[in-house]
Amino acid sequence: MSYKSDIEIAREAKKRPIQEIGAKLDIPSDHLLPYGHDKAKVSQEYINSVQGNADGKLILVTAINPTPAGEGKTTTTVGLGDGLNRIGKRAAICIREASLGPCFGMKGGAAGGGYAQVVPMEEMNLHFTGDFHAITSAHNLLSAMIDNHIYWGNELGIDERRVVWRRVLDMNDRALRDIVTSLGGVANGFPRQTGFDITVASEVMAILCLANDLSDLQRRLGDIIVAYTRAKEPITCRDIKADGAMTVLLKDATQPNLVQTLENNPAFVHGGPFANIAHGCNSVIATRTALKLADYVVTEAGFGADLGAEKFMNIKCRKAGLAPSVVVVVATVRAMKMNGGVAKADLGAENVNAVKAGCPNLGRHIENVKQFGVPVVVAINHFVTDTDAEVQAVKDYVAEMGSEAILCQHWEKGSEGTEALATRVAEIADKDESNFAPLYGDDLSLLEKVECVAKRIYRADEVLADQKIRNQLKEWEDAGYGNLPVCMAKTQYSFTTDPNRRGAPTGHSVPIREVRLSAGAGFVVVICGEIMTMPGLPRVPAAEAIMLNEAGQIEGLF
């Protein structure tokens, strides 16, 4: 049996005008700022007007560690949102925007799949409403103004060796990781070593996703530490006088984007920090707006629960005063078999023992999420090669863990395939049994917070940090930043810092390579192992297969 590709299904979508989608949430058409006919931004004025509304129930979708077999977290998020609407609930979806880097690199699109997609798929995976371009421009405006300040006399006394603000680009380009700028003589400034990160790792991206409104955005931008003097006194974006112009560039980008699912249900798509190198959640503005307009809001956090869910709970919920009612952990039979030692080429054959051998990875995530005091349901994202015995093995294992696993067929059937999951999730959310709390308090030292995540989430024995890193953390504590949470930058493929160690390993160490203070965003980034904040393209990038066909349609986006 042959199946249509995601892009073929998306092309056949019977989209409704975006004003009709807004009307489902009672958003007046004059408060929708349309980008074409099928996407719009929601005005800040309207968002301000609904702040007195009661909040709906917040449902987080997360997953096991990603494998080449595929898990389908975004697909499940969309399918669950459609399923809730199917059973008569007023539900909205909140997901992140796609980065051009992985679209042209390895991952492909980020709008769901099969019959559980958000559309317009091509625009969402390319330029969309220009938010990432605005973030890139605002970030690099600050870079330009720092170097310009030094060039024209350096009134602030910036130590050129201690400029910590790097540039960004929304593309995987390893050649830009470490560079030297200002070569070519006096007219071009003072040569110094710097580098590029990918836009999704920018502190400006994190700030946009954590800010409450424009004034909070400008305050946070002003707090960014960009450099230090020779006396190690911090220089901020506000000192450079760039915060006002950056806010102007981000004025429209802060307004959430409204689009629709294939079943014409509302979806907010806003912000896009990666979860391996950044905090991995869509914007607070979008989530809060959805909670004021819908009775149930389904959102996702990137990669596995050891990264996205941990940061959703410890950073986003802590900062925004949010609390999830239930967490859905996505798993697949295929991924369980890969964790159980089966090669990708052999995943089609039934292997119940391998499923059982791979389930501890899922079990670890269930245990970890429960540490936050939130009920957990497992969604088994169905593949056509799954056998009844393999599915039952996962269900039995999850039952032993004190949770329940529900088979979902949304990729093939849309909302019809998630009715059971939607019904159960709504039941649990309505019981109000969540006792959510972050994993650690603000008063722990920064290193203790790192150790808490490493030991309780990754199940590591120790954190390896040399004296230079320990001294840096202590300096930040002495400067008043000790109350900040930590944002762990770590490989998504394993609980360890070794991407090849699948399953549920113990007895490992977490080496810290670097720490960065994001004073505006309000967290400390802890870079572990070999993780890169500027990814590279694979040997055969997805870009090689992306093109326009004879009909002028885009081919090659997943």
UniProtKB/TrEMBL annotation:
Give the superkingdom in one word: Bacteria
Q: Identify which top EC class this enzyme belongs to.
A: ligase
Keyword list, A-Z: Ligase
The enzyme's E.C. designation = 6.3.4.3
Name it.
Formate--tetrahydrofolate ligase
The species this protein belongs to is: Lutimaribacter degradans
Q: Give the lineage.
A: Bacteria, Pseudomonadati, Pseudomonadota, Alphaproteobacteria, Rhodobacterales
